[in-house]
């Protein structure tokens, strides 16, 4: 048993517990600043993560836990997201009536869940990690107890989440019932015998449904806009980035480590899921005026694009998912940061609030524009290169499966539609007639730094993609031999 | 280690102006001028450091490695493509950078005075910094794609700056015209790049040169590729038949005219031709002959037009056109050295002349008609003397810089055996002297012809010092080994040598033209005497222009720019543009607009609104849909 493998998770949990303890002795103004303490702590852990290499991959807890380059990639990803989200939470603190330290601590616990999920190599571990994320998010989404919308969002997330968890745990039971195995590697060893066993297939599919809830993909996507709209901004941002990435980490491990044979046979199912998800997300966003809901639908659409990498069934596709998530992280966090600063509870989140933003704060206008342009997939920002890699991976597979061309066609159609609604927002920023308010918006220094960080991230990944491309290719290399 | 430092220095020189532009745009409005000037100063110092390092190392180019920017496919496969961002550090690029940042720095400083109090003050400096960045990008690019990207960026910043006073209809039209005309040239340029890329399989200059030296499969397309690439220069350097945008570009603020539309950007075309000279001169290519004649034709045409213009900036604009034609002609007659030499000296004295014109305009409260000026010699002494220096340099009087570079071009045409072009060159030299003498005599000599000209006020020191400083290289540009530097580079790089031998001292430099090619030197001097004498006879103390009476129709044609704008507007545009526009409008309205856009947009929007009904907010519906979705999938997956 090598405890050093899970030392990062231990550190995150201890940091969370430390915050809860510190809460007992600190005066209220000091509590708000605990968020910075947590962010600095996570930054240290982020730095520390580079002392691990993950090669050769190491197993722990009777092979339930694996530390390999893929796990490390997702852990660093979640850490980075959590750092920005904590900084956002400090900026959000005044809108939370009480218990800001708990808010920080819950973010850390959810982060621990994501980091465990990155390393899950066993269905039991998968379930525990997922519940750790989901349960903390139940609280995070409904944290503004005095706000009806927040409560509503929390309840919706709870009920749909419980329903999906039911599918998940039922699927696990069916898999265990048929094969007698929980470990991914051991399932993989016996799965070929069960490829025609409908009970086993049903089990795998139910697990897939449970994971679709996390990544906000069809058939468990429908909660997304409502919950994003209701949740506190930092919680929604973390849900959009961290939770989705954890879902993809698990999805990749289940589909390609545990049941690769079945996954290959389900190529049409995966294409169909991607197509429906892309179409639903993009089409529903068209009539939308609420920026958080737009981002909710965009989150569904992006889950669809990410499924392209799964449906490609090759390492290029898997690497592209990791790359795309990298660009998505900066764009989504940047968009939510702007929402946090510009839109408060009183004015609402209608895009008309953005009128004249370029005069009120050129920085905010520029960052939001870049974020949306990146999400739309326009060069030279990160989103373009991510989509490019995904589509190219699918085209590589098209020689084996002509249905891939349909997937690419739908993806391109989705991009065109998405440009329409993203540019609706950009138009509101720059070309609104007679904006009602023109007072400058003050940007707190730390939030400004976070904004610039996200902006630079988008530009860096868009202009100099090579470094991250190599990292992601290394992270998925271990699947090449299978 | 050292190489790294050198390369980072080059990147810093490139990126600092961009940083300044971004910072100004994002909010540092008050510090706009300081940021912009600071950035260009640092760029200049970095360039100077690089240049000295190169000089001391005794090489013509520094080792460089480019950053891979984008790699697609695997090496060796047909779809392999690698784009890289690299900086080309050699004598050619560094000399050009010195010009861009050095002249640019002075013009930045001058602009502080010229634009003081303008409401777009910070926007102006942001655009100027963006321009500096883009221009340095062109100069430093080590491959065609990077060159093209910056080429377009320069086009954008020029567009922004010509239309700086966008409330003025003429400025708005002019920037549109400049942009569109440039786009025509750039389209050809892009085709040329693609042709080169597809034939030779490389886009960076170093590999292209290797490929061409290997010879073989490039020869059949060499002429075509050379001419297409030349299209880019025709647009950017305003050569016939795309020359029409440059005079209109004078609608921009005068510092912009000086920096962009005289000294640097318009010279980018010539620079690009010199950069890819190996491509144009490749075996089997006849592109250079065409290039030479287009250059010669442009220089003659523009010089004739300049004779009968009355707007001080337009005279200088046509003179710029004419001098650019000279440079292009030099490239076409196998003389990149002469072209770059003239480009450098021209940058000094033309910037000086434009800034001088700016000072005159400033003094007369934005009066630009030379027939409303006069007698300014006494009231504006600094402007007068520096303008005189610029004029003498442009006319090519010994020992001003213009004489040496112009002589270098004339000698090159002789050496190349193009006597026709040599004759054109001499005639243009005479015309140049004529119209510049006319300009100087009318503006500064005689008596004041309007109320404004009687009480001008000299510009503030912040505008006068750049004039004084620019006057220095305009005088001495011919004796400071500029030509030898370029000749050394092109001799090493391309095997084409200008006539400059390894020069001894300053004294020899001074007399060098008379030794190397006496025919060219004396022809040039003769042209100056003829042009100067004619102008002196006609315009000494003249109250009105006597030429229209004497020349009649010819004068009117010159004054109306030989009706090129009218020709384009009435004949060319209706035949091509309007006809195309009508067809396109039909397709757009009925096929694309009606069927494709409205049809598909309507269907899409309808689908969106229909799907939105699903998203009702009701939890029961959501749960039902989730389970329903799962059931449907299970049916397709397992039950069938």
Number of contiguous helices of chain A: 20
- Contiguous helical run count of chain B: 28
| Proportion of helical residues of chain A | over 70%
- Class of secondary structure makeup of chain B: mainly alpha
Extended strand count of chain B: 2
Residue stretches of chain A low in confidence (pLDDT < 50, at least 5 long) are none
Question: In what order do the strands lie side by side in the largest sheet of chain A?
Answer: 1-2
Largest interface: A-B, 37 and 33 residues
User: Uncertain spans of chain B, ≥5 residues at pLDDT below 50?
Assistant: 494-503
SSE order of chain A: HHEEHHHHHHHHHHHHHHHHHH
Summarize the biggest pleated sheet of chain A.
Answer: 2 strands, antiparallel
Q: How many E-type strands of chain A?
A: 2
Strand order of the largest sheet of chain B: 1-2
Q: How is the quaternary structure best described? A: heterodimer
Structural class by secondary-structure content of chain A = mainly alpha
- Proportion of helical residues of chain B: over 70%
Query: How is the biggest beta sheet of chain B arranged?
Result: 2 strands, antiparallel
Tell me the Rg of chain B in angstroms. Answer: 28 Å
What percentage of the residues of chain B does DSSP assign to strands (E)? under 5%
Net shape of chain A: globular
Quick structural gist:
Chain A is mainly alpha-helical and 482 residues long. Helices cover 75% and strands 1% of the residues of chain A. Chain A is globular.
Question: Mind explaining what this structure looks like?
Answer:
The complex is a heterodimer of chains A (482) and B (640). Chain A is 75% helix and 1% strand. Chain A has helices at 7-25, 28-48, 69-92, 100-119, 123-141, 148-179, 184-191, 198-215, 224-230, 233-258, 260-265, 267-285, 291-311, 315-342, 357-360, 362-376, 382-397, 403-430, 445-463, 466-475; strands spanning 58-60, 65-67. A two-stranded antiparallel ribbon of chain A has the order 1-2. The longest helix of chain A has 32 residues, at 148-179. Chain A is globular. In chain B, a hairpin with an 8-residue loop joins strand 1 and strand 2. In chain B, strands 1-2 form a two-stranded antiparallel ribbon. In chain B, helix 13 runs antiparallel to helix 14 (312-332). With 640 residues, chain B is mostly helical. The interface between A and B is medium-sized, with 37 and 33 residues.
């Amino acid at each position: 048993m090598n405890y050093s493998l899970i030392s990062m998770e231990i550190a995150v949990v201890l940091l969370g517990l430390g915050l809860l303890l510190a809460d007992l002795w600190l005066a209220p103004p000091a509590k708000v600043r605990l968020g910075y303490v947590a962010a600095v702590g996570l930054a240290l852990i982020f730095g520390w993560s580079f002392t691990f290499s993950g090669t050769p991959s190491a197993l722990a807890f009777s092979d339930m836990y694996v530390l390999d380059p893929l796990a490390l990639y997702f852990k660093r990803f979640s850490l980075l997201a959590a750092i920005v989200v904590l900084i956002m939470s400090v900026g959000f603190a005044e809108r939370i009536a009480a218990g800001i330290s708990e808010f920080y601590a819950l973010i850390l616990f959810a982060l621990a869940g994501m980091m465990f999920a990155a390393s899950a190599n066993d269905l039991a571990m998968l379930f525990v990690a997922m519940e750790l994320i989901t349960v903390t998010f139940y609280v995070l989404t409904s944290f503004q107890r005095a706000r009806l919308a927040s409560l509503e969002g929390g309840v919706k997330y709870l009920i749909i989440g419980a329903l999906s968890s039911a599918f998940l745990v039922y699927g696990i039971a069916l898999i265990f019932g048929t094969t007698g195995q929980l470990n991914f590697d051991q399932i993989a060893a016996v799965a070929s015998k069960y490829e025609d066993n409908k009970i086993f297939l049903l089990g795998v599919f139910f697990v897939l449904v449970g994971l679709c809830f996390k990544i906000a993909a069809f058939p468990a996507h429908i909660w997304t806009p409502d919950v994003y709209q209701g949740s506190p901004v930092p919680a929604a941002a973390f849900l959009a980035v961290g939770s989705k990435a954890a879902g993809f980490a698990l999805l990749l491990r289940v589909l390609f480590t545990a049941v690769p044979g079945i996954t290959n046979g389900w190529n049409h199912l995966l294409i169909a899921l991607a197509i429906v998800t892309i179409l639903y997300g993009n089409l529903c966003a068209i009539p939308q005026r609420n920026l958080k809901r737009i981002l909710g639908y965009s989150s569904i659409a992006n889950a669809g694009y990410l499924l392209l990498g799964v449906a490609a069934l090759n390492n290029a596709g898997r690497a592209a998912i990791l790359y795309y998530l990298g660009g998505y992280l900066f764009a989504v966090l940047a968009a939510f940061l702007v929402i946090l600063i510009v839109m408060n509870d009183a004015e609402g989140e209608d895009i008309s609030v953005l009128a004249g933003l370029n005069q009120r704060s050129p920085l905010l206008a520029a960052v939001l524009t870049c974020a949306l342009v990146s999400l739309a997939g326009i060069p030279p920002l990160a989103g373009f290169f991510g989509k490019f890699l995904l589509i190219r991976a699918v085209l590589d597979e098209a020689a084996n499966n002509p249905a891939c061309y349909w997937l690419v066609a739908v993806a391109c159609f989705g991009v065109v539609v998405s440009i329409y609604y993203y540019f609706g927002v950009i138009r509101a920023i720059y070309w609104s007639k007679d904006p009602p308010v023109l007072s400058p918006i003050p940007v707190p220094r730390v939030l400004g730094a976070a904004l610039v960080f996200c902006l630079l991230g988008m530009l860096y990944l868009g202009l100099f993609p090579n470094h991250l491309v190599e990292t992601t290719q290394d992270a998925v290399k271990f699947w090449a031999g299978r | 280690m050292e190489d790294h430092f050198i390369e980072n220095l080059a990147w810093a020189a490139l990126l600092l102006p961009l940083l300044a532009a971004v910072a100004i745009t994002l909010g540092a409005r008050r510090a706009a001028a300081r940021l912009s000037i600071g950035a260009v100063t640092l760029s200049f110092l970095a360039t100077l450091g690089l240049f000295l390092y190169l000089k001391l190392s005794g090489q013509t180019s520094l080792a460089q490695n480019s950053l891979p920017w984008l790699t697609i496919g695997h090496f060796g496969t047909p779809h392999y493509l690698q784009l890289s961002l690299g900086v080309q550090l050699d004598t050619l690029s560094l000399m050009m950078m010195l010009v861009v940042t050095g002249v640019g720095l002075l013009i930045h400083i001058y602009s502080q005075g010229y634009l003081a109090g303008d409401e777009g003050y910070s926007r102006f400096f942001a655009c100027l910094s963006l321009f500096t960045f883009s221009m340095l990008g062109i100069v430093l690019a080590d491959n065609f794609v990077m060159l093209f990207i910056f080429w377009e960026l320069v086009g954008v910043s020029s567009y922004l700056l010509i239309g700086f006073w966008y409330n003025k209809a003429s400025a708005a039209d002019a920037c549109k015209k400049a942009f569109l005309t440039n786009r025509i040239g750039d389209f050809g340029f892009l085709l040329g790049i693609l042709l080169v890329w597809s034939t030779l399989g490389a886009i960076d200059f170093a590999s292209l040169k290797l490929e061409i030296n290997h010879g073989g499969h490039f020869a059949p397309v060499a002429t075509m590729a050379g001419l297409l690439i030349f299209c880019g220069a025709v647009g950017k350097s305003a050569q016939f038949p795309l020359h029409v945008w440059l005079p209109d570009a004078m609608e921009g603020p005068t510092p912009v005219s000086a920096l962009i539309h005289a000294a640097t950007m318009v010279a980018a075309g010539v620079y690009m031709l010199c950069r890819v000279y190996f491509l144009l001169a490749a075996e089997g290519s006849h592109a250079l002959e065409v290039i030479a004649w287009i250059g010669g034709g442009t220089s003659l045409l523009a010089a004739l037009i300049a004779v009968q213009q009355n707007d001080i900036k337009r005279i200088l604009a046509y003179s710029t056109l004419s001098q650019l034609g000279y440079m292009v002609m030099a490239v076409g007659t196998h003389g990149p050295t002469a072209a770059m030499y003239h480009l450098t000296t021209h940058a000094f004295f033309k910037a000086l002349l434009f800034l001088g014109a700016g000072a005159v305009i400033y003094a007369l409260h934005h009066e630009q008609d030379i027939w409303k000026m006069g007698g300014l010699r006494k009231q504006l002494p600094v402007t007068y003397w520096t303008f005189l220096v610029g004029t003498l340099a442009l006319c090519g009087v010994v020992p001003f810089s213009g004489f040496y570079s112009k002589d270098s071009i004339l000698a090159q045409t002789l050496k190349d055996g193009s006597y026709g072009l040599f004759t054109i060159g001499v005639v243009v030299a005479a015309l140049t002297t004529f119209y510049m003498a006319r300009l100087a005599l009318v503006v500064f000599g005689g008596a004041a012809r309007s109320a404004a000209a009687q009480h001008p006020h000299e510009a503030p020191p912040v505008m006068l010092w750049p004039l004084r400083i620019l006057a220095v290289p305009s005088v001495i540009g011919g004796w400071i080994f500029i030509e030898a530097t370029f000749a050394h580079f092109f001799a090493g790089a391309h095997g084409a040598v200008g006539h400059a031998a390894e020069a001894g001292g300053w004294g020899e430099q001074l007399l060098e033209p008379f030794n190397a090619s006496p025919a060219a030197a004396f022809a040039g001097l003769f042209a100056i005497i003829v042009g100067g004498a004619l102008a002196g006879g006609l315009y000494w103390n003249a109250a009105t222009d006597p030429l229209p009476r004497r020349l009649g129709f010819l004068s009117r044609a010159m004054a109306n720019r030989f009706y090129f704008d009218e020709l384009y507007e009435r004949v060319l545009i209706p035949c091509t543009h309007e006809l195309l526009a009508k067809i396109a409008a039909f397709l757009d309205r009925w096929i694309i607009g009606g069927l494709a856009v409205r049809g598909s947009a309507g269907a899409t929007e309808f689908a969106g609104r229909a799907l939105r009904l699903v998203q009702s907010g009701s939890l029961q519906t959501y749960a039902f849909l989730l389970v329903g979705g799962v059931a449907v999938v299970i049916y397709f997956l397992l039950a069938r």
